[in-house]
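So, could you explain this one?
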Amino acid sequence: MKVLLHICCANCAIYPIKTMRADGMEVMGFFYPHNIHPYSECVKRKDTLETFAEQIGLKVIYQDGYDLEGFIQNVAFRESERCNYCYHDRLRSTALIAKRGKFEAYSSTLLYSKKQQHDLIRSMGESIGKSVGVPFLYQDFRAGWKEGIECSKQMGLYRQQYCGCIYSEWERYNNALVDDLLSSDDEPEGE
C-alpha cells in the first residue's frame, strides 16, 4: 500500500515509519510548516527532517511557503480550540496531496504522540478522508513513544520541546516557570 504520511517532525516519524515499512507499506512523507512557530523553529524541524529522511531513504514532499498570518488569523480569539483547526488544516492538506499523488491512503505522525487528542485526530482524519476520497489509515503508534525518543537521541536529532505553534511554546515555558516558582523553598517577597 502506498501511504502519504504527514510528518510534524523527524522525532515523531521514527516509529511510525519503522512500523509501516515493517507492515510492507510504501511510505512517503509530507511536511506542513504553517503551524510551526517561530520561523526559526520551523527551519530547525525541516532541516532535521531532511537529515533524517536522507539517512533512512525516505522521500518527502515539503509544503511551499510559510503562512504564519493565515494560521494566526484562523485561531485568533479561538485559542482554546486551536488544535481543532490545526489538526484539520494539516490532515486536509495531506489528504489533498495524497489524492493528487494517487496514494492509497494517508496518515499522520500525530498518532504517535501521547500528548495529542488521539480520538479527535482519528475521527477528523476519517471524515476528511471520506470527503476527499483517500482513506485515512489509522494506527495507534503510541506504543513506540519511548522507542522513538531513544532512537532520536541515538541519532542526535534536534528534539523540540513543544508541539509547534506559538501558543504551545508559551504554555510549555509558562507552565515550567510556574512549576519552578511553586517548587521554590523561598518565601515570596513582601512589600
User: Anything to note?
Assistant: The two ends are 67 Å apart (CA to CA). Residues 67 and 73 are 10 Å apart (CA to CA). Confidence is low (pLDDT under 50) at residues 185-191.
